[in-house]
Amino acid sequence: MLHRNAPLSPEGRLRLVQRCPHRPIAHVAAEMGISRACASKWVNRYRRHGELGLLDRSSTPRHQPTATGSDVVARIEALRRAEKWSASRIAFELQAEGISLSRRTVSRHLLALGLNRRRFIDPSGDTNREPRKITARRPGHMVHIDVKKVGRIPEGGGWRVHGRGSHQAKAVERRKSKGARGGYVYLYSAVDGFSRLAYTEALADEKADTAIVFLHRARAWFAAHGITHIERIVTDNGACYRAGAFARPGQPASRPGHTPTTQPYVTPHPSPTGYPRTSPNPSANTSAKCRPRRSPNCSSCVRQENPSARISASGPAFLTAGRS
């Protein structure tokens, strides 16, 4: 695609080569506002290939020794069409077959194949995703955590209570015109999935450090009400839960008095039978943090090799319920 300041289009290149047989190339190039080298390039292309040589060429290299093989691309297309898997799942399955490709590479090939969107696979909109219930079997088995952002209500109530044009509503507008803002409050809630016992706090922000201290206070509150052991924490993909300070174990908090949390148990490639999925290739069962060598001290490797060890004695395991 030509940029807006391009001096030559395919039609302009044709006019250039039509003038050059009767006049010096340098004179024609000066008239058209380009260099003599540029004019010579298009004249030579026209002499070799005709009008087809005046079209733009692809910038893709002619030789790509590290390019993905056609058989691998065909395998990616087959998995996408047959199983409707995401790029992450396809990369995981290829790793199990001994083919090492990153998720980004798989995504690039899906885009080139025109299969990057689910609606491109099934015009009818059919999907292979089935909703699954998260069932807690005992108190503390699964604790759900979420944050709700709500606006602060003005003191004495706002216009929804007193009506527009009321004395209270006008007082609020006057405060706003002077720069006063009510702001927002963030309601952190932790609900036990079995007993439905809930703990809520109104906090100032939704940062990872705030989520960490809320989690520890919630654990203490649940312990005071008889739930002494929390096995799993279920969250969404909120930024405070995906932050490294919330996820990594043994990391000090950024403010004094904050304590670190434990390593989350997150499996991004669920299998039809549930979590975790063990690959037939032992080398593919290692986590991304310790690949290609398996470390005996890596908790992710221990959980992949022994799924029963995913509930750590030092704290709860974490499950991330992603948004579809």
Describe it.
By secondary structure, the protein is α/β, with parallel strands linked by helices. The protein has 13 helices and 5 strands. It has helices spanning 10-19, 25-32, 36-49, 70-83, 87-96, 103-113, 118-121, 159-162, 167-177, 208-224, 239-242, 244-247, 299-305; strands at 142-151, 184-192, 198-203, 232-235, 317-320. The protein has a 5-stranded mixed beta sheet, covered by helices on one side. A hairpin with a 5-residue loop joins strand 2 and strand 3 (198-203). The protein is flat and about 95 Å long. The two termini are 35 Å apart. Residues 249-324 have low confidence and may be disordered.
Topology (elements, then pairings):
Blueprint: H1 10-19, H2 25-32, H3 36-49, H4 70-83, H5 87-96, H6 103-113, H7 118-121, E1 142-151, H8 159-162, H9 167-177, E2 184-192, E3 198-203, H10 208-224, E4 232-235, H11 239-242, H12 244-247, H13 299-305, E5 317-320
Parallel strand pairs: 1-4, 4-5
Antiparallel strand pairs: 1-2, 2-3
Helix pairs in contact: 1-3, 2-3, 4-6, 5-6
Low-confidence spans = 249-324
What proportion of the residues form beta strands (DSSP E)?
A: 5-15%
What percentage of residues falls in helices of 4 or more residues?
25-40%
What is the CA–CA distance across the termini?
35 Å
Q: Count every beta strand, where a strand is a DSSP E run of 2 or more residues.
A: 5
Q: H/E element string?
A: HHHHHHHEHHEEHEHHHE
Biggest beta-sheet profile: 5 strands, mixed
Q: What is the topology, as strand order, of the major beta sheet?
A: 3-2-1-4-5
- Mean pLDDT, all residues: 75
Query: How large, in whole angstroms, is the Cα Rg?
Result: 31 Å
- Count of helical regions: 13
Structural class: alpha/beta
Basic shape: flat
